[in-house]
């Protein structure tokens, strides 16, 4: 018997790519279960599919940095901390964080196939014995507009958003006096493609870093939040610094004000997404 659940959850995470660096991504997850009927004449109760499998996925990869085990760099992992030092296309990224901020995936790249294999290996052993196999489909949200991939960290967040390198694939819609502006949307999406959005308040000097080594071309960030101490050194040209927190509310407001400065006689509306089907609207 085969059971399926579409739109089970969304994975919002970042991954390391040897060409692009830290890539923020958002994938919708569909799941199919193969198995025998249990004593309730079910393969698995839908409520358990939605709660149990979603919880496993959330705990294993959601709001984390996914790292291929064949990394173009080096990493150290112990019971509490992870330290990564990584090169990509002439750029640099080094991060130190609590170990739960990272998941390691077998292979030399993070893609649909490697993440699907990771999910299957992680989820199947935790399901009832009558479930013989589990399949996953990963897909991006259909785009109505231009989109960008960004990574960030929210030190004030009480949940997993505080992890210093996690991210999203996000659409952006910009309107002037109620008229959509595809050119402006394209320009912003290209500017923020594969970007790290850093907050001014989180910038530190290289000497302040405790666990990673920065290069002269790096920007450095560090903060302590409820999950522990985080720090990051990343090439300056892979960052954009904003004068606020990088919540989607602040991003929408920042973009609206930034665009308003270019078009002072226009009413500006920015619809900024955070992953799939959610976001904030900024008006200036």
From TrEMBL:
<comment type="pathway">
    <text>Purine metabolism; 7-cyano-7-deazaguanine biosynthesis.</text>
</comment>
<dbReference type="Pfam" id="PF01242">
    <property type="entry name" value="PTPS"/>
</dbReference>
<protein>
    <recommendedName>
        <fullName>6-carboxy-5,6,7,8-tetrahydropterin synthase</fullName>
        <ecNumber>4.1.2.50</ecNumber>
    </recommendedName>
</protein>
<comment type="similarity">
    <text>Belongs to the PTPS family. QueD subfamily.</text>
</comment>
<dbReference type="InterPro" id="IPR038418">
    <property type="entry name" value="6-PTP_synth/QueD_sf"/>
</dbReference>
<keyword id="KW-0479">Metal-binding</keyword>
<dbReference type="InterPro" id="IPR007115">
    <property type="entry name" value="6-PTP_synth/QueD"/>
</dbReference>
<keyword id="KW-0456">Lyase</keyword>
<keyword id="KW-0862">Zinc</keyword>
């Amino acid at each position: 018997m085969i059971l399926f659940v579409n739109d089970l959850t969304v994975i919002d995470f970042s991954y390391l790519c040897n060409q692009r660096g830290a890539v923020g991504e958002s994938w919708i997850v569909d799941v199919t279960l193969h198995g025998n009927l249990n004593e309730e004449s079910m393969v698995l109760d839908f409520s358990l599919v939605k709660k149990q499998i979603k919880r496993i996925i959330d705990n294993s990869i959601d709001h984390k940095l996914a790292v291929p085990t064949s990394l173009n760099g080096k990493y150290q992992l112990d019971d509490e901390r992870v330290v990564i030092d990584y090169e990509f296309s002439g750029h640099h990224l080094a991060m130190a964080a609590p170990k739960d901020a990272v998941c390691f995936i077998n292979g030399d790249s993070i893609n649909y196939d490697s993440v699907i294999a990771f999910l299957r290996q992680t989820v199947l052993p935790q399901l009832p014995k009558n479930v013989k196999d589990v399949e996953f489909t990963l897909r991006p949200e259909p785009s109505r507009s231009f989109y960008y991939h960004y990574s960030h960290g929210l030190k004030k967040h009480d949940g997993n958003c505080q992890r210093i390198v996690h991210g999203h694939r996000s659409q952006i819609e910009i309107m002037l006096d109620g008229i959509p502006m595809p050119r402006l949307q394209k320009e912003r999406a290209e500017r923020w493609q594969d970007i790290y959005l850093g907050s001014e308040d989180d910038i530190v000097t290289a000497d302040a870093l405790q666990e990673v080594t920065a290069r002269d071309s790096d920007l450095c960030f560090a903060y302590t939040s409820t999950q522990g101490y985080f720090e990051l050194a990343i090439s300056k040209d892979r960052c954009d610094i904003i004068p606020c927190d990088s919540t989607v509310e602040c991003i929408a407001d920042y973009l609206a004000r930034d665009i308003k400065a270019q078009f002072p006689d226009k009413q500006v509306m920015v619809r900024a997404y955070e992953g799939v089907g959610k976001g904030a609207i900024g008006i200036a």
